[in-house]
């Protein structure tokens, strides 16, 4: 009965479930912040569109980074659209 010790299956359909990085929030995270890579739930991530010279990209950021984006005079003009909900497509 000692043959299988330490031979755990590595099968898992989902990656490890992270809690939202916001301390007061206990929701399950859905993605990580584009800037700081903290995992946040759909409530706390905002989908923002950043316009670059050639195209626009949509990223998800946590409240802290969204605040920084909005306060940053260089990033501010690049923010064309801020959705308060997490959007998946
Ligand atoms: Zn962040
Ligand atoms: Zn949250």
Brief rundown of the structure:
The chain has one helix at about 65-70, and strands at about 30, 40, 45-50, 55-60, 80-85. It has about 90 residues and is α+β, with helices and mostly antiparallel strands. Helices cover about 10% and strands about 25% of the residues.
Total DSSP E strands: 5
> Unreliable stretches, pLDDT < 50, 5 or more residues?
none
Give the assembly state of these chains.
single chain
If you average the pLDDT, what whole number results? 81
Task: Indicate the structural class.
Answer: alpha+beta
Distance between the termini: 49 Å
Helix content: 10-25%
Radius of gyration over all CA atoms, rounded: 18 Å
- State the order of secondary-structure elements, H for helix, E for strand: EEEEHE
Task: Report on this structure.
By secondary structure, the protein is of the alpha+beta class. Helix content is 10%, strand content 24%. The chain has a 3-stranded antiparallel sheet with strand order 4-3-5. The N and C termini lie far apart (49 Å). The relative contact order is 0.18. The model has no long low-confidence stretch (mean pLDDT 81). One zinc ion binds next to α1.
List the helices and strands and how they pair.
Blueprint: E1 31-32, E2 39-40, E3 46-51, E4 56-61, H1 63-71, E5 79-83
Antiparallel strand pairs: 1-2, 3-4, 3-5
The structure holds zinc ion (2 copies).
One zinc ion is lined by residues 20, 22, 25, 27, 40-41, 43-44.
Keywords:
single chain, 89 residues, alpha+beta, 3-stranded antiparallel sheet, two-stranded antiparallel ribbon, 1 helix, 10% helix, elongated, binds zinc ion
